[in-house]
Design goal:
This protein is α+β, with helices and mostly antiparallel strands. It is built from four helices and three strands; from the N terminus they run H-E-H-H-E-E-H. The protein has helices at residues 3-7, 15-21, 26-34, 53-62; strands at residues 12-14, 42-43, 49-52.
């Protein structure tokens, strides 16, 4: 899969699926969103948000570091 194709993947994850996929709790996910440190989300309905797989990949790539220090 090319980088452009991976970034443009529009399949949608619910908020809970996104938290589970990235191995953190709902409260951590909510904190990331509140602090503006999470990916861009899509408002699915008045009470639900989601994130595309492509946006999740872009967000993860932006958090990569070259060393653990």
């Amino acid at each position: 899969m090319t980088d452009d194709l991976a970034q443009s993947d529009i399949r949608m994850l619910s908020f809970d699926e996104w938290c589970q996929l990235n191995s953190f709790s709902r409260s951590t996910g909510q904190r990331l969103l509140r602090d503006g440190k999470g990916p861009q989300f899509v408002r699915i309905s008045a009470r639900r948000i989601g994130v595309t797989i492509g946006e999740n990949r872009r967000w993860l790539a932006s958090r990569m570091t070259s060393s653990a220090a």
